[in-house]
Amino acid sequence: MPSFFEKASYILHGRRKGRPLRTGKTALMQTLLPRIEINLEQQSNPADYFSGKDIWLEVGFGGGEHLAWQAKENPNVGMIGCEPYVNAVASLLKHIDEGALQNIRVWDDDARIVIDALPDNSISRAFVLFPDPWPKNRHANRRFIGPENLPKLARIMKSGAQLRVASDDPTLQEYMLEHLRASPDFKPAPDTEHGMRKTRLDDWPATRYEIKELAKKRPNWKGPEYYVFIRK
Ligand SMILES: C[S@@+](CC[C@H](N)C(=O)[O-])C[C@H]1O[C@@H](n2cnc3c(N)ncnc32)[C@H](O)[C@@H]1O
After folding, report:
1. Which of 58, 68, 92, 122 is paired with 209 by a 20 to 30 Å CA distance?
2. Does the Cβ of 131 fall within 6 Å of ligand 1?
3. Mutational test site, ligand 1, from 15, 69, 85, 143, max ligand atoms within 8 Å of CB
4. Per the confidence metrics, is the pTM higher than 0.90?
5. Domain definitions of the chain by residue range
6. Ligand 1 site, residue 59, Cβ cutoff 6 A
7. CATH class (in words) of the domain with range 24-231
């Protein structure tokens, strides 16, 4: 298992910083984040933050509304949220602060680093919602759900654990579904069409990205797709 010292071997494509944060969010980054961030130098096994609870993982939580909702609805589950974009982390912190949520730990960097640090069979559910599409063929290896990362997710997921994925991008939809269906480690969830749904499950709120994209009128667009697979 690579140690956190090897994190430089991953190249993160995508932004880390956007507009300057407002004062309230800057304060949360300085006060709340240090209390709930995952620190692999102090705690090499991130599962140890949760003392035996079920652990769910969200990769690329964006504004954090989905993760915060899951944390509120499932107070006995420990949540790990991974997101390298500072403005998004600050947005999640606002949700955590406003909801007084106690069960979230934040990894403010590339999810692959924390995935590598997690032990085998330690995650009971994983979410990768509207990952960056990288629609050009030459960028296909940057797509999060694919042949590189599916075995990594499979290693840390418990047998029977759900993997929930979504996308609105036709190229990415086709790519992810092909790799999910071909994976020897995952099988489609029963309430799906070979792993695919056209609607979210009841305990799956819309994300900010999803709401923004759905509001756009796109000709001949087949709409978002939701994938639910089970770790064998
Ligand atoms: C299109 S946004 C979607 C955000 C959110 N899931 C939503 O649906 O609103 C994709 C997010 O994935 C994050 N991301 C990209 N690569 C990542 C990685 N390797 N690890 C964790 N997050 C990543 C980006 O910073 C970005 O916030």
Report:
1. 122
2. yes
3. 85
4. yes
5. 24-231
6. yes
7. alpha beta
